[in-house]
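Subject: Predicted fold for GPI inositol-deacylase winged helix domain-containing protein, 700 residues

User T.R. writes:
Posting the sequence so we have a shared reference for the thread.
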Amino acid sequence: MEQPTIGDIEDVLQKLGSGMEGLNELYKQAIRRINDHPEVTKRLAKRILIWITRAQRPLSIVEIRHALAFRENMLKFDLKYMPDMEFLTSVCAGLVTIDESSEIIRLVHYTTQEFLQQTHEEWFPQGELYMTKVCVTYLSFDTFENGPCQTGEELKQRLESNPLYHYAAHNWGHHARVAAVIDQEVIDLLECKAKTEAASQILMAVRPLESSELLSNFIERIPGELTRLHLAAYFGVEKAVDHFLRKGDDPDLKDTYGRTPLSWAAENGHVAVVALLLKTGQVEAGSEDKWNQTPLLYASANNYEDVVELLLENGVNVDSKNIDMDADAKIIGTYSGRTSLLYASANGNVVIARLLLEKGASIDIRDMDGKTALAFAIEGGHEKTVELLLDNGADVHIQDKNGRTPLSRAASNGHEALVRLLFMRGAFIQPVDGYLTNLTWAVRHGNKLLVQLLLDKGHLLDERDSYNQTPLVHAINKNQVALVELLLDRGADPNLEGSNERTPLSWAIKLGDVDIVQLLLHKGAKISYKDTGVSSLLLKAAEEGYMDIIPHILDKDVQNETTDAAMFELLFLAVEMGHTAIVQLLLDRGADMSYSGIDVSLFPSNAFTERSIDIVQQILDNEVQIGASVAVIPTLLLLAVEMGHVAIVELLLDRGAEIGLRNRQQLWVTLLAGAIEVATEIHHTVIVQLLIEHAHYMYI
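User M.O. replies:
I've generated the structure tokens; pasting them so everyone works from the same file.
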């Protein structure tokens, strides 16, 4: 086999069923072929593979070509060292491919990635050190010796002209930390203030930035005065931190955001660097930045348990709070008025929460919205954390600024187990909990078991919320048929008015849910209620396009309250929508196409379409049976002429002749004259000709 293709890999996978032994042998053969290449080709292939395998994100073709152009002691980028794109795949024994749509070079199969990740120390034992050298050399080019850019346009140009710059600035420290070898190139870069600040400027970017305007705004927000020690601590490069501490760098120096090397190391979970900085005895373990964020807050927010434990051992304030954010703070991602316990509870980190509680963290301390640790834990559905907080005396009745209790948060997120736990710990149902009732919160989430639980605990069925709505109306608005049925079965009032004096039935009709309409009618919903009578409900359903609801309402109209005008309008709407069954139903109920109280010109121009001919035939057949065609045909004919529907005009003219309108000569002559006038005005020559021919046929 010359080289493994995707087909070869899939064939092996199919034969294997499970396990990697056969594939591993396939990949080992590919590595052996690479090792058989000449030295230059072999080195290039392995560098391509290490970049694809060990890079912190997928690299574009241009990025990897820039990375491969690396040479020892380069002072500036040289295009002459960039390999051709086609050569990138040919030297790798079939292990890589180019995704043309994304312009990313990648491995041919996910199993290839797994194999190379597991074995990279065998085929490229110093891969991370090599990647560190490439990134650091790139950041050290002479072009960056002027330091950070001063304008967005300048920064945009820098990124475009140096494609690997963004990756190198964000990831050199990661590769250096993993390599665990302090290289002189790293020290040289960090000792150059201008180049360090230039790299830091890109490092602080939270997302790819394209326009020069966005870049200008970004430049104004990034922290300044990031020293080499800040940068080494940020990435957790322990040997570099130790090197600069030995050289006498201030371990507690703050950047323009008020952040120390300890703050950056704690945020990124570099426990060895945190320990090294604390060991100096020259740092304030609980130092606050411009938002009162402490190293403990950063570590807690990012789930770094070892760092939290280490900081607590150094006596930091366990209840320190950050403050309200401004635009700059969004770069850091802080939240208003949170403590470390609030962070840990929101994350569901039981280990950190327990460490903090053991050090005396205030259990019911609130953030700026009045939310406690219990509220955050419940909101995230973190059952173990909730149990820990309750075991330590968390208040189950405490309300936030919106009046919401832990119970309402559990209900609104559908956490049945947490609701049960809160009831076991003494929680009780409050009338309105944060502008909605507890039952409504559960209904809106759609959790039937939770709704049943709340009802079993005594929650009132028809209790209104701050919007004057009942749980039943919320269930209808969420199209929760099962919950509507449950609430009605448990006794919810189907006629209770809510906001705007609307009944549950009117909401169901507006939403067009036939099943819910049937349920409500079956449970006694009144179809004639104040100003919402039968006609009003029927028209509402038709106007919303929910014709299937109409039969159910008519079936309940035992007192025949539907007006002739409403029936006539419904008939037109049914015709317009092509609902033959509804048309027949309305005709059977006495809908009259010749109803004199309606101006037919007010109906929409698409009341009749060419597909309506079957419905028109249906109406005519019905009118023959009740002997009213003499009145109906003129109405329909004028509409059909006005709308320009030739086939319907022909049908009506033929039917008019059949049923004897010719015997009412004056009426017919007047009708035809009017139709001809209308057709002429709209320049419909075909219909004009039809009408003239028909008149000629009948009277000559």
